[in-house]
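ARCHIVE CARD
Drawer: 12
Card no.: 0347
Subject: one protein chain, sequence and derived structure
Cross-reference: see card 0346
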Amino acid sequence: MHKYILKRLLLLVPVLLGVSFLVFTIMSFTPGDPAQLILGENAPASAIAALREEMGLNDNFFLQYARFVGKGITGDFGRSYTSGREVFGEIFARFPNTLILAVVGVIIAVLIGIPVGIISATKQYSLLDSTSMILALLGVSMPNFWLGLMLILTFAVGLGVLPSGGFNGIKSIILPAITLGTGAAAIITRMTRSSMLEVIRQDYIRTARAKGLGEKKVINKHALKNALIPVITVVGLQFGYLLGGAVLTETVYSWPGVGRLMVEAIRQKDTPTVLAAVVFLAAAFSVVNLLVDILYAFVDPRIKSQYK
């Protein structure tokens, strides 16, 4: 297990390098001059040229990227062009808000997705099964920003029972968490149903029923535990997606998280902030995937034996 964890952590290095190189390349081709952004539009050309030279912006692309990687290894991702503060300080200040939103979103998704998936599998081809699958298809198809706007129009503007944005208490979490959790709930529902259908057709399930065990006990004790492996995979992946994919949701709801910080940095061509945020979220997503793989060993002992 220790060797497996170490191997996965080492594989994280080329992943982060690839992600950072891709983002660095994209940011290099976007219009805008960071030096002019820092000094202001009315700054003299000589001052802008001097600052560009000081920041190393006149160096070639590969030298700039090598300098970024060299400093990044030591944990120095530079300072924000707009605020002047260390970028990781801003990210760490906002990450708890993103984490809260992702955790609540995945809880909503699990509370909806797993029970609905189980019921759909046990009542296959029924009206309830068809309805849940149609709703799941709609949940997967709806863009987050559109659903967010519809929820704001309904519950904030129309009914006035929930805030439309910001982070001002528990009520402000409800709408963005539902927006994030809806798509994840649809995916978890479909995976739970598929996995349960595969398991309940196995011989040991028929044997359990032949022994006279009640249907509820057969489903909960025998079928569900064995159907959890792919469901855990999906839940873990969705949690990772919610951490990194909350960009649009945070923007729609003016949520003070890493996603919104990244969008604002992209608009202002704040390259250090964008790079640090993307690398941080990519690392968080990879760590979540690793934790999911480790969790497999506690759910299925057969998988644990493969790590030895």
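Annotation on reverse: The chain has two domains: 2-73, 93-306. The mean pLDDT is 83.
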